[in-house]
Design a protein that fits this description.
- This protein folds into 2 domains: 290 residues, Zn peptidases (Aminopeptidase, 3-Layer(aba) Sandwich), CATH 3.40.630; 128 residues, Glucose Oxidase, domain 1, CATH 3.50.30.30.
- It contains 11 helices and 18 strands.
- The chain has an 8-stranded mixed beta sheet with strand order 1-10-14-11-15-18-16-17, sandwiched between helices.
- The longest helix has 29 residues.
- It is elongated.
- The protein binds zinc ion (ZN).
- The site of zinc ion has 7 residues, from helix 7.
């Protein structure tokens, strides 16, 4: 397909909508602010402490699933198999209670000063510490000595400061895998703390600490980490649809993962406002939009669980679909939608140059975003399992001054929704060209 044709596709749609546009124009100011209010409220809810970071402590993900189900019900979305929930299970390592780390006399703050690695074991007690740093690793005699020492009752503190080369990073990684068989490992890091979660327990305590809060003079720590591996955590995808008025057996699909990292103990909550309360809230807003503006094709809405654990919800869905994958005209995955002042990126757009050109054409015509970036496909969100089934699927994320990622600061108040209405307009205009 050529760009001229795409432009025609767009013009046709525009002509159809002159009247609607006029009415829309009259009310656009009111409608716009209402829409942002709705999405803001949804993000405030999803990213509140009551949802526990939509993870695996205090039933956070189940609370979010129930919230979405109630919304689907209120909007009277259709169900595929008699239920909005699609249930599946997976193993997950959790920290449901205490996460205490005291170095000498310094009590470190969970989430702020230190992170318990997703795969860490639980532990409780006072432990002596032995330190390894760059200088010692450069000394082969010291390394030999280390290899012969029994560390089974101590914590090894690995100071990564100054270790920046690829080779040194590799060494760091191998030290985190505990070749000493120590009771636990503390990795000192001068970068940002970024948490992730794991399906396994690695068999020793593993903690990451910001190096600037670590007192080197102390020789003992107190550590208390409650940990629990749940081998069969039950999770739910939340799925519904709006029936198309003209071609109801073909679908446009919107996806967004509603899960996030949850709590690391009771004192650190990862609210995940940008990642991905923002995309989930936009999915909800799109449901309202297509309920009010009945679409030509059917539109399916899939809120996925388990994305942060490894795209588990979307992987489960593609193996257990509600309808044949070939019926999907196009899928748009929304993740990290909270910014946009520096534009958006469309992952997998490199494989669909005509669609990418169409996005850009709409963007220029409607004067929406400063830039739309192209990107090849990547396994970085829920669109990916669909692309492996040959579905035309794109992942849209925003760019901007987003300092916070997978940390306790990704909160509702740090998400500006800078270009929310513009992105919403871009997406709905694109979908209308089908
Ligand atoms: Zn995400």
């Amino acid at each position: 397909m050529k760009i001229e044709k795409l432009s025609y596709r767009l013009k046709l749609h525009t002509a159809n909508c002159i009247l609607t546009t006029f009415v829309f124009f009259l009310f656009s100011f009111v409608t716009k602010s209402q829409d942002t209010n709705f999405v803001r409220q949804a993000i405030n809810q999803l990213a509140s402490d009551n949802f526990h970071g939509r993870g695996y402590v205090n039933n956070g993900d189940a609370i979010a699933a129930d919230y979405l189900k109630a919304f689907y019900k209120k909007e009277k979305l259709k169900k595929f198999k008699g239920d909005y929930f699609q249930s599946f299970s997976f193993s997950i390592n959790t920290f449901p209670g205490k996460t205490i780390l005291i170095n000498g006399t310094d009590t470190l703050k969970p989430g702020v000063d230190f992170l318990v690695a997703g795969g860490s074991s639980g532990i409780k007690g006072f432990y002596d510490i032995v330190r390894i740093d760059k200088e010692m690793l450069d000394d082969s005699l010291k390394v030999q000595e280390f290899k012969q020492t029994n560390f089974s009752d101590v914590f090894v503190v690995v100071d990564a400061q100054g270790m920046k080369s690829e080779k040194e990073k590799k060494i760091m990684k191998s030290l985190a895998s505990n070749p000493f068989h120590a009771k636990g490992i503390i990795m000192l890091d001068d970068g940002k703390l970024m948490w992730s979660i794991s399906q396994k327990d690695v068999g020793y305590a593993l903690i990451e600490v910001r190096s600037n809060v670590w007192n080197d003079s102390s020789r003992q720590i107190y550590v208390n980490i409650d940990q629990q591996l749940n081998p069969k955590h039950k999770a739910k995808n939340v799925i519904g649809y709006v029936k198309g008025t003209q071609i109801p057996d073909s679908f446009i699909v919107f996806t967004a993962h509603y899960d996030h990292l949850g709590r690391m103990g009771q004192n650190a909550v990862f609210n995940g406002a940008n990642d991905n309360a923002s995309g989930t809230a936009m999915l909800m807003d799109l449901i309202r939009y297509y309920k009010k503006n009945p679409p030509k094709y059917s539109i399916a809405f899939m809120a996925f669980a388990g994305e942060e654990v490894g795209l588990l919800g979307s992987k489960y869905y593609v193996e257990n679909p509600m309808f044949e994958h070939q019926k999907i005209k196009c899928l748009l995955n929304l993740d990290l939608m909270g910014f946009g002042e520096d534009g958006i990126t469309i992952v997998n757009s490199e494989n669909y140059p005509d669609d990418f050109a169409l996005f850009r054409e709409i963007n220029e015509k409607e004067k929406l975003l400063p830039v739309i970036n192209k990107r090849s496909n990547a396994k970085n969100s829920d669109h990916y399992p669909f692309t492996e089934k040959n579905v035309k699927a794109f992942f849209i994320y925003t760019q901007g001054n987003s300092k916070y990622y997978h940390d306790i600061y990704d909160r509702a108040e740090t998400v500006p929704l800078s270009k929310y209405n513009e992105i919403f307009k871009l997406i709905t205009t694109y979908v209308a060209t089908y």
